[in-house]
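Chapter summary example.
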Amino acid sequence: MTTNLQSLSLTQLFGEGTFQDASVLIIQKASLLRLSPSVNNAAESLLVAILITALNSFQGTITDENNQSISDENNQSITFDNSEAFELIKLIEWKAFQILRNNQKYINNQIIVEGYTIDVTN
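The structure predicted for these 122 residues follows.
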């Protein structure tokens, strides 16, 4: 059976400058989207930045070389969805919404992650 599914590269998941060898994985903080690199980035911030960077390979808005959205004839941004294209993982962005926690407004962004394994028993 042949498949058109693709494997993701390290760069697609973790950003430019990612490197791995047999014992380490190096991720450049500056390549992670929506992260302000700091010596003290919280683990939660790093995980979210990795997921947001990876999400860019699954869903998004098509942009030009200046990172401006490309629009159709109705002035609607042109989007893409590759969520079915990759073999072992699927990421879906859920719509953001506001929540109130301790009298502070937050924006709740949700990303659904589905992971798959290959059945080698057949």
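To summarize the output: The two ends are 12 Å apart (CA to CA).
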